[in-house]
Design a protein that fits this description.
This protein has about 130 residues and is an alpha+beta fold. The chain has 4 helices and 6 strands. The longest helix has 23 residues.
Length: about 130
């Protein structure tokens, strides 16, 4: 159980809710034709979707193992990182790439899962830093 805003939340339920929201947002933008399917991976360096999926799954497994080893549990920031990465993997299976619908300055495109992943990673690194300073 997580204590989020003084409310106890089941981690599995929270993960499912976040995943549903991320998938619904991509689905809506995709079917409203307000998105781009990005079949590239790691800043465009890898174009093979199957390699992108394998690398993503491998990185998620390493992240989970290291998080459990470090904290003895999955924290909220870790859950945000894992669920958002899983959402992007699901996009790759369904659409052949990640559905990107947020566009800034015609330079970069990304989606809500990317935002959640970045926020989750920032919070995760904050937790790690706090643990190291103890």
């Amino acid at each position: 159980m997580l204590n989020v805003l003084k409310i106890k939340v089941n981690k599995t339920l929270l993960s499912i809710i976040i995943l549903i929201v991320l998938q619904l947002s991509g689905f809506l933008f995709y079917y409203l034709s307000m998105s781009v399917v990005n079949d590239r991976f790691i800043f465009g360096a890898i174009a093979d979707n199957s390699i992108a999926i394998l690398v993503s799954v491998f990185l998620i497994i390493i992240f989970i193992v290291l998080t459990i080893k470090w904290f003895n549990l999955l924290t909220l920031p870790a859950i945000l990182v894992i669920v958002s990465a899983l959402s992007n993997i699901i996009d790759r299976f369904i659409y052949g790439g990640v559905v990107d619908y947020l566009n800034f300055f015609d330079y970069t495109r990304f989606n809500l899962a990317d935002v959640v992943l970045i926020v989750g990673m920032f919070l995760y690194l904050w937790e790690v830093n706090k643990k190291l300073l103890k």
